[in-house]
Write a structure and sequence with these properties.
Glutaredoxin; 28% helix; 211 residues
């Protein structure tokens, strides 16, 4: 598993479905560099079971992400037509109608490979013939990218394990707090709570108050 934290987020240019139904040809994360924080997450497939609960949960918190100057972007190895159809399908029929953030197309698997979340892989036999082993789908990877385009947090879940959207918001708060104040955020820190200064005196003071 590649650790991308501290590195520039892999760049790509791909088709995507935006605004709940508009297909665009050249979507890239680079448009947000210098302007927005990005939550870029992968999910295994359209028209599945855990996936719609996650995508709808992110949409339900859209205003909270916007308040944090953060854009949410999903991606899977499905086609733009599959994304579009799923976005048009009512939620009570297993669809995600109402989701407005972009869904990126990764049919050639290159984005999933670059973020190292692809379940399967290409293998070669003794004669050099290529074949794909495993599923051409992505694990539930999530990457928090700062305004400089650098990955600051990553999480990868196996297929049955849905993510916690509130935890993603907490991490954005922590990142933005450290950027603004230069302090560090201890375990279970939440916005509005006291952080600590990264010195021996700072940690001693923090722990004594917690005791």
């Amino acid at each position: 598993m590649s650790v991308l934290v501290g590195k520039k987020a892999p760049v790509f240019n791909s088709k995507a479905v935006v605004n709940g139904g508009e297909i665009v040809e050249n979507f890239s994360l680079e448009q947000f560099v210098g302007e927005k924080y990005v939550v870029f997450f992968f999910y295994p497939a359209d028209f599945t079971f855990v996936c719609p609960t996650e995508l709808i949960a992110f949409e339900d918190k859209a205003a909270e992400f916007a308040a944090r100057n953060t854009v949410v972007i999903g991606a899977s190895t499905d086609s733009e037509f599959s994304h579009w159809k799923w976005l048009q399908t009512p939620q009570n029929q297993g669809g995600i109608q109402g989701v407005t953030y972009p869904l990126v197309v990764d049919q050639n698997l290159s984005i999933s490979k670059n973020y190292d979340v692809l379940i399967g892989s290409e293998e070669y036999d003794e004669e050099g013939n290529e074949s794909f082993v495993g599923e051409p789908k992505a694990y539930r990877g999530l990457f928090l990218i700062d305004k400089q385009g650098v990955v600051r947090h990553q999480l990868v879940n196996d297929l049955p394990l849905g993510r916690n959207v509130d935890e993603v918001l907490r991490l954005i708060d922590a990142l933005q707090f450290t950027e603004e104040y230069g302090e560090v955020c201890p375990a279970n820190w939440k916005k509005g709570e006291k952080a600590l200064v990264a010195t021996q005196e700072g940690i001693a003071s923090y722990l004594s108050e917690k005791a």
